[in-house]
Structures are given as structure tokens and as C-alpha cells.
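Ticket #4471: structure output looks truncated?

Reporter: J.K.
Steps to reproduce: submitted the chain below (408 residues) through the standard prediction queue, then opened the result file.
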Amino acid sequence: MINNELSKHTAMPKTLYVGLDVHKDSITVAIASQGREDATLIGKFPNNLTTLQRHFAKWRQGSTRNGKPLDEEHTGPFDLKFVYEAGPCGFTLHRRLTQLGYDCTVVAPSLIPQSPGDKVNKTDKSDSKKLARGHRSGDLTPVYIPHEADEAIRDLCRLRSDTTSDLKGNKQRLKAFMLRNGYAYEGKTSWNESHMNYLRELTMPCSSQKAILEEYLTAITDGIERVARIEAHMERELENWHLKPVVEALMAFKGFKIVAAMITVSELGDFTRFTHPRQLMSYLGLVSSEHSSGPKQSLGGITKCGNGHLRWILVECAQHYAKEPKVSRQLSTRQRGQSRGVKNLSWKTQNRLHHRFENLRKRRMHRNKIIVAIARELSSFLWELGQLMLKEGTWPHHLTPTTNDSAN
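Returned output as attached by the reporter:
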């Protein structure tokens, strides 16, 4: 009798799973209670956190905005568990809900289970109900939520990549314009000081052509200055970044200067969350796709899922390992202050990847495929670097994000 009374007073609050279909202007809400009942559509609300907080408080007490109970069998307080898809709205909603003390999960849209009927009935209402049901059954895969400081550095690194992409496009357009008009630079290297002086002093037969040339030159000069300003800002931000030890350790590897190291660390975040290097390879989309059935095995190209920006920078860095292993003067300078373990791992990486490159080259494999294979194996050494820093106690534990720790 006493045990029954205690169980009544110590019973856990009932859980409600809240699916949010988030858009720029609106959020469609559906709630699924414990059990096998279908999710209930609550309605569409403006995407305004201040307004939504009042509704969250009502739902926690068990009533909707119309005063109707969320659950006929339970009237006490509820434990709300929110879920929404990762998308262009970012993690602002997640961080605000976490600050308010709610449980919130952001899931990967590409990993949400699909059925053939979903293509016929896909609306905001059905999406929110599917999220609520999937969160209740545990079928959704959470994504990694970066620290706010890490996300700010990541956006800065992406700005640098966008700026260099614009600069490259302007250079290609100017070269195409010059070629169409019969001008070809005979120097060995393009876009150095000699090439720029050649373009500035060039005389065009038509005033409109000269105006086009000047506009392109102005855009290219502005782009070069923008890249220099952004890189200088990246160096300043690195001094106060809590992941600076990871960036400096990565710079001890061949092919990783400050820009490549900051891009890699900002995109990957806490890469100690991966329990095995194969998880990191899969996250980067560098593993081969497979379509096998029975005794027949069919392998395709890489999946290209996950973070494309990080996959690109690793492919760029992997090309350095085609050369003979060597600790150059610049690499030796970057390795100053690093532990013996980091230096040994860097040297091991050079020897292993170059040996791998030569073996694949002797098999007459296409160079692009070789580079991708080297990038895939390079990611495993990044994982090993994280494990080494954990072992040495140099990984910044105290500022590691504490939100969703999924490797996806």
C-alpha cells in the first residue's frame, strides 16, 4: 500500500513529442503522445520565438491555444521533446529552446525514413506529423550542433571560400574576353605582377573594350584585397578561438596551412565524437556507394553525402602527398611547439599516403581517383590526431559542445 502511494507521487510526467516544420515565416506544429496513436496537428504559427514561448508554456500544462486538452487521459504537466529538420534557418531555434530548458533535437533531412506515399502527400502538416512520430519511435538521426563560436568561425571561413570563388570566376571571364579578341599573354605565370602590368598597359581598339577590361581589372584587384582582408581577420580570430590548439596541431601536417586548417576544424568541429575513422569517412561522403545483391557485388563512385566544403578542402590538401615525404622549412616552422607524438603522426601520414599514391599510380588508376582515395585515408589520420590529443590531454574538453553528439 505504501509503495503504491509513493509511485503515485513520484510518477514521471508524460512525454509529448513535438514536431516542428520550420520555415522563414511560419512553423507548423504537430504533437504525438506516448503510445501508438497518430500525431495531432496543432496548427501553423508565426516564426516568432517570443510568441511561441507562450504556446510552449500552454502545451507543457496540457492545453492548446483553443483551450482544448492535448491528452484526454492526462491533465498534469507534460515533458515536451521538440524536433525539427536541419535547414537554412540554422540552429537559432534549437539554442533558444535549450536556453528555456526544453529538450530539442535537430535531425538530418536526408536520413528521415521515407515511404512511397510521402511523394504524393507532402505538405507542411504531414511533415510535422512525420517528425513527431519519428521522434517518438526513435527513427530520426540527430545532427551535430556546433558551438556558437565555432559556427561564427565557420561562416568566416566560408566567406573566404566564396570570395576566392568570385575572384577565380572574374579571372576566367577576363581570360575568355582577351582570348575572344585575339590577345594572349606569353608569360609563364598568370596573375602575377608582370601579368597585371601587361593587362593595365594594354591598348584596345574600341573604347567599350577598354571599359570592359578596366572593369574586370578593378573587380580582380578588389577581390585580391578582399581575400587578404578576410585572411587577416581569420588570423586575428584564431588567437581567441578555443579550438586554436587543434588548428595548430593540424598545421603540423603537410598541406595544411592556416587557411586549410581553420576551414577543416571549423567545418568538422569536435571530430573526437567519431568512434571509428570509417564514420568520419562516411560523414565526408568519401566512401564508395554499393549496390549488391546475393553473390553479386557492385561498387560505384563516392557517395558525396555530408559536408561538401570539407570534402573539397581535404581533396585539395591530399594533392600535396603526391610528392616525396619531406619536412620542409615551412613545415618545420609550423611544427614548432608541437609534441613529439604530433610530429611523428605527421611524418607517418606523409610516408603512408605517398606510398599509397605511388601504388595506385603504378596500377594506372586515374589521378582524380587516386587523390580522392588519398583524401579518404587522410581523414583517418585526422581522426587519429583527435584521439592523440585526447590521450595527451591537449584537446579543449572544457569548451567542447555539449549538445547533440551524433556523428552525423
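Triage note (M.O.): checked the attachment and the full C-alpha cell line is present. The chain has three domains: 2-137, 153-239, 244-399.
Status: closed, working as intended.
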